[in-house]
Amino acid sequence: MTSEHTLTPSRTYPVTDAARAALAVAKRGCDELLVEEEFLQKLARSEATGKPLRIKLGLDPTAPDIHIGHTVVLNKMRQLQDLGHTVIFLIGDFTSLIGDPSGRNSTRPPLTSEQIEANAKTYFEQAALVLDREKTEIRYNSEWSMKLGADGMIKLASRYTMARMLEREDFTKRFQGGVPISIHEFLYPLMQGYDSVALESDLELGGTDQKFNLLVGRELQKQYGQAPQCILTMPLLEGIDGVEKMSKSKGNYIGISEKPSDMFGKLMSISDDLMWRYYELLSFRSMDEIAELARSVESGRNPKEVKVLLAQEIVARFHSQADAERALEDFDNRARGGVPDDIPEVSLTGAPLAIGQVLKQAGLAPSTSEAMRNIEQGGVRVDGGSISDKGLKLEAGTYVVQVGKRKFARVILA
């Protein structure tokens, strides 16, 4: 192992203004940095020796798509990457076989190797929309985890106690509540921690829900004779509802592969207060610039104008500046009651067809009962006219059907 990563008394490096500036970049928007003075020394060492720090982020490919909530930590990786450090995008193809118990009140079903492989194929392609593809080290933790074998796994398990595992909040709650905890779940934080040993990590990033796992890595590094990694946790971004954390299962997410107009519209739907949270965690603008935007709003500027700037920045990042401009035009057109140019076309049969069935079959409502609720709330339009009659049937023809502000379909009914 390299000398920088051995657990031996080492020299103290002078802390320069550049090191303190790098620390400020690392801390922007973070929830916690452990241990700050240690990390400052790592930054000072890197500057003095010219050797970049090794910064690790592990993601399990549990789903094929990444939403902008995931990019909060990816943005931090990019900021540290731009400072010249080595960032390691670790795909947890082995740990996904176990299943991360973080925040769970029951055992997470492990994925099959086929599911993991399919999801992993898309992961870095999406992450590369944030990270510098050419400067990112991509690793899979099966590289070293598979080689451990039964003997190595037993030796690794001997390095951590059951009592320490039960300090973890979700394990404690399940244990006290009589909810089963499978033995293999204890292996997850151990294997994630062992990743840090294998990669000789200087800093590991993760969401606040990963703190326990990251601390295990720090402890294991000490036991393997390495200097312990520092830990930087990032907040979990609230979804567009402003209440729950962003999640596909809660329907409050913005996927980074969504159409520009849909992404723009969702960003414009967030509250004025939540906008500042999104600015801090998602925007690449400096904090001084963001503070100036906040002062302009306090002085009377319409918050919508500032929200447009954020929405355009995010859309341009994942698509293009031209897409961002078109998305703004599309949004303004919708706000004036216009119809977007790129609405989907759906062919249906069965005329005359009940409006509830039209909405459901056109994909504008998940069920007829939800379609009825949309009508009751005045959210359904056909060819620009508001619909209030839940018993309406559409005759054969072509209609522009709208639900809410963002859902449109050109329905060809026969």
Automatic annotation (TrEMBL):
<feature type="binding site">
    <location>
        <position position="248"/>
    </location>
    <ligand>
        <name>ATP</name>
    </ligand>
</feature>
<keyword id="KW-0694">RNA-binding</keyword>
<protein>
    <recommendedName>
        <fullName>Tyrosine--tRNA ligase</fullName>
        <ecNumber>6.1.1.1</ecNumber>
    </recommendedName>
</protein>
<dbReference type="InterPro" id="IPR002942">
    <property type="entry name" value="S4_RNA-bd"/>
</dbReference>
<dbReference type="InterPro" id="IPR001412">
    <property type="entry name" value="aa-tRNA-synth_I_CS"/>
</dbReference>
<dbReference type="GO" id="GO:0004831">
    <property type="term" value="F:tyrosine-tRNA ligase activity"/>
</dbReference>
<comment type="similarity">
    <text>Belongs to the class-I aminoacyl-tRNA synthetase family. TyrS type 2 subfamily.</text>
</comment>
<keyword id="KW-0067">ATP-binding</keyword>
<feature type="short sequence motif" description="'KMSKS' region">
    <location>
        <begin position="245"/>
        <end position="249"/>
    </location>
</feature>
<dbReference type="InterPro" id="IPR002305">
    <property type="entry name" value="aa-tRNA-synth_Ic"/>
</dbReference>
<dbReference type="Pfam" id="PF01479">
    <property type="entry name" value="S4"/>
</dbReference>
<dbReference type="GO" id="GO:0006437">
    <property type="term" value="P:tyrosyl-tRNA aminoacylation"/>
</dbReference>
<keyword id="KW-0547">Nucleotide-binding</keyword>
<dbReference type="GO" id="GO:0005524">
    <property type="term" value="F:ATP binding"/>
</dbReference>
<keyword id="KW-0648">Protein biosynthesis</keyword>
<dbReference type="InterPro" id="IPR024088">
    <property type="entry name" value="Tyr-tRNA-ligase_bac-type"/>
</dbReference>
<dbReference type="InterPro" id="IPR024108">
    <property type="entry name" value="Tyr-tRNA-ligase_bac_2"/>
</dbReference>
<dbReference type="Pfam" id="PF00579">
    <property type="entry name" value="tRNA-synt_1b"/>
</dbReference>
<feature type="short sequence motif" description="'HIGH' region">
    <location>
        <begin position="61"/>
        <end position="70"/>
    </location>
</feature>
<keyword id="KW-0963">Cytoplasm</keyword>
<dbReference type="GO" id="GO:0003723">
    <property type="term" value="F:RNA binding"/>
</dbReference>
<keyword id="KW-0030">Aminoacyl-tRNA synthetase</keyword>
<comment type="subunit">
    <text>Homodimer.</text>
</comment>
<comment type="function">
    <text>Catalyzes the attachment of tyrosine to tRNA(Tyr) in a two-step reaction: tyrosine is first activated by ATP to form Tyr-AMP and then transferred to the acceptor end of tRNA(Tyr).</text>
</comment>
<dbReference type="GO" id="GO:0005829">
    <property type="term" value="C:cytosol"/>
</dbReference>
<keyword id="KW-0436">Ligase</keyword>
<feature type="domain" description="RNA-binding S4">
    <location>
        <begin position="353"/>
        <end position="414"/>
    </location>
</feature>
<dbReference type="InterPro" id="IPR014729">
    <property type="entry name" value="Rossmann-like_a/b/a_fold"/>
</dbReference>
<dbReference type="InterPro" id="IPR036986">
    <property type="entry name" value="S4_RNA-bd_sf"/>
</dbReference>
<dbReference type="InterPro" id="IPR002307">
    <property type="entry name" value="Tyr-tRNA-ligase"/>
</dbReference>
